[in-house]
Amino acid sequence: MRKRRLGILSLAFVAILVVPGVLLIAPSSRAEVTTAWTIGLYIDADNDFDEYWEGLSLPYLLEIPESAEVNIVAFVDRQSYLGTEIWEIEGITGQIVETLPEMNFGDGATLSWMISETATRYPSENLAIVAWDHGSAWNGFCGDYTSDDWIYLDELKAAILDANVYIDILAFDACSMSSIETLYTISLTGLVDIVVASLETVAGDGFPYDLMFTPVALDPTRTPDQVASDMVDGWAQYYDPKNEFYYATLSAVSIGSLAQSMSTIDAWCDAIHTNLGAYYKAYKTVVRGTYSVFYTKYQVDMVDLGNKLLANSKITNSALRALTQDMIAAVEDAVLYLDNAESTMMCGGITLWWAGSVDWNFYSDVYAGLDFAAYTGWWDFLSDYNA
Fold first, then answer.
1. Is the dihedral of CA 233, 239, 242, 245 positive or negative?
2. Residue 38 and residue 36: Cα distance in Å, rounded?
3. What whole-number distance in Å separates Cα of residue 275 and Cα of residue 344?
4. How far is CA 47 from each of CA 14, 16, 61, 227, 341, rounded to the nearest angstrom?
């Protein structure tokens, strides 16, 4: 879960003025004018993040320069009241343009509806969707306390497919979503170009939206590749100078490149499994020394894992070593842009679940249902490894 920053005061909702420059207005019809970009935010604040929407993310968004060619819209569900808000952000003004009944933001069907509504209401040449809330790598994201629900990866895939809208950038302002399991599932839709996410904990400050999206507001001709680069650069501007965020890392991943490399990653997974009997103890040593996500020692960085495998003198099988080098290259080719903090410098931008016995016994049934686990046989490997 994202680390919470202390000292943030929850802002009360009022009918006329919410925060400086933010007005509540009646629903209005919107002319369907195609613009260069639409940035749609799926704000699941119906949980312990309620205060962060108005306290942090909205003020960042209000700092983005107004542009006639860039739509910024947020679909917001909060814990403090029953209902769903649709916000439009234009320069220093944020307007609630429509209020809907309470919705379950922990349901993939709601995410699918949001993607469809964003594309229909705000047609544009390029579309960025940001999922905002808690995240837990392959174990899903966006928890809705009112509905007691959570979006799992099968729901994410169905949401994208059902919306049937091409997403140029799918970003996760949520923890640990840059996992190979998540990225592979997204690749199966064929509807996402780039994913921007962190393999680590995302601080309570979340995405610095002003630094990330000001460049496209000033130059709406920027391509998805350039905007993804802007997002990583904006993250770096905000987090790199702050020593307290020593774990901060963000990557932009080409889903097309990853999809083309999955046969290589699959072959590497098979080789890891085939050599389990010979290298079980070496594997355990390597995994213990590999960079792992802040809140779990089992979600490990794939590039660091590969380098540690190659550095282990006991792992001598030439085929396994060659495939490990290929796996590293595949991950590095898929990661377009990456920013690491001091403690994450060894990270390559994508993680993999290499579970120990405690977590395996607790989560193995969930993991068995993942597309990645089935395609690569990684569930079978982990089952034998923990046996």
1. negative
2. 7
3. 29
4. 20, 24, 21, 30, 29
| 247 vs 201: CA distance, rounded Å | 7
pLDDT in tens, 92-137: 999 999 999 999 999 999 999 999 999 999 999 999 999 999 999 9
Residues 6+ apart with CB under 8 A from 360: 382, 383, 386
pLDDT of residue 31: 46
Q: What is the pLDDT of residue 294?
A: 76
Residues 115 and 128: their CA atoms lie apart, in Å, by 10
Residue 81 is predicted with a pLDDT of 86
How many angstroms separate the CA atoms of 84 and 78, rounded? 7
Structural tokens at position 208: 């610095």
Orientation of helix 180-187 relative to helix 153-163, angle to 10°: 30
To the question of domain 22-256 being in CATH 3.30.300.30, the answer is: no
The two tokens of residue 209 are 């939206």
| Regions of the chain where pLDDT drops below 70 | 1-33, 297
| Domain locations in the chain as residue ranges | 22-256, 259-337+346-385
CB 255 within 8 A of CB 195: yes
User: Would the pTM count as exceeding 0.85?
Assistant: yes
The 3-state DSSP class for residue 297 equals coil
